[in-house]
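Explain the record.
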Amino acid sequence: MPNDKKHILCFGALGQLGQESEILFSKDKNFELTLADKDECDLTKIETIQPFIEQIQPDLIINCSAYTDVEGAEEQKDLAFLINATAVDEMAKAGQSLNIPLIHVSTDYVFDGQGNAPIFPNAEANPINVYGASKLEGENLIKQSLEKHIIIRTSWLYSVHGKNFVKTMLCLGQKREDLSIITDQYGCPTSAGSLAKAIYDITNKILFDHVEEWGIYHFSNPKSTNWYSFAAEIFSQARAYGIKIKVKNLAPVSSAEFQTKAARPTYSVMNVEKIQDNYGVDVSEWTKELDKVMQVLTKS
């Protein structure tokens, strides 16, 4: 591998994925990393994005930033589209003018969830909520503005950082004896650490091995499950690590019993073969990835 360092600009540095990406890239002497969050570049101030990228002059941009409040997006549609679409387009335009590749993270929520087989990257998107629509618009703008792009759709992201389903379940599980969890929404839990490793591997392939298989990819940790079974596994692993879980009655309920502003896909399991075939990315099962995260959370 060449000795010259490659400069990576990572937007969304304080999020789950951004923090996991920082851990990986900062350990590698082949990379120089610039981390950007709101203080460095406020994505709601559209006019600042391209000048910021021009100033940094990175070899590759990784966009981990997003407006991810699915419920909030129903009421803050303009803000969701501003961050998830308009700001992303500015990154793509800067990338095109400066010949900088972009790796952008998207979501399984671009699909309506009406199928029953793993979804391929070339499947027709049909979002059923504002969040999904804003993310799809971001994807489309990237495709229009920048040739050298990798869009990675992922699902059910969790980690030791920030707010996520795993940490919420651990908190509730230590306080409540009765808990009701949705059982009719299917997907694949994905650890932010495993996704960061996928992005890291792809970055190496692009910048050092000159592998340029641009386009849309899917990444998640198989196999498929539902929120109820995910919660049950969280509690099982927590107990195995000595955490006192008080839940005695974990009740399966339908999504119809929960009133939400935003509709959710019923089935958003994604096919990950393309990212394995084109970039040799390792994809491990979600229970194994959960165990890695649980080891850290149960020690904190």
About this structure: The longest helix spans residues 77-98. The radius of gyration is 19 Å. The longest strand covers residues 6-11.
